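FW: tagging you since you asked about this chain on Friday. Here's the raw sequence from the shared folder, copied in full. Didn't touch anything.
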Amino acid sequence: MRIVIQRTKNAQVQVNNAIKGQSHFGATLLVCIEKDDTPSTLELAAKKILNARIFEDENGKMNLNISQVNGTILAISQFTLSWRGDKGNRPSFDRSMPPKEAENLFNKFCDLLSQQVKVETGEFGASMEVSLTNMGPVTFIFDF
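HL: got it, structure written out here
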């Protein structure tokens, strides 16, 4: 599982010119479910995301997690993150989990996150337009 997390002031995802999900303050996640991922991988990833201290405290130090700042999450499925760019120039997505299985695990992952914060998503497998304002910029990549 590979996740790009961005601290965002606002974010939204559109499908066919209609807003499917949005976050007004919090984090935007680009989530790639890979072949070896299991429910325990999802639990580990959700715990890490929810506890990541990437928001500033009153002293300007990254010391607060998303729950502590009343943030929300916009989670977007993105299988293209499975290509690491280590071989060749044409992307290969061999590490990505097949779509039906990946959608099931992506939804479970979002359910785990939503136990503590509000989570909105795009539309799995659709062509989406994602726009955001990154605060910082602050961006991290997590591999599980």
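FW: The mean pLDDT is 97.
HL: agreed, and The chain has one domain: 2-143.
FW: great, closing this out.
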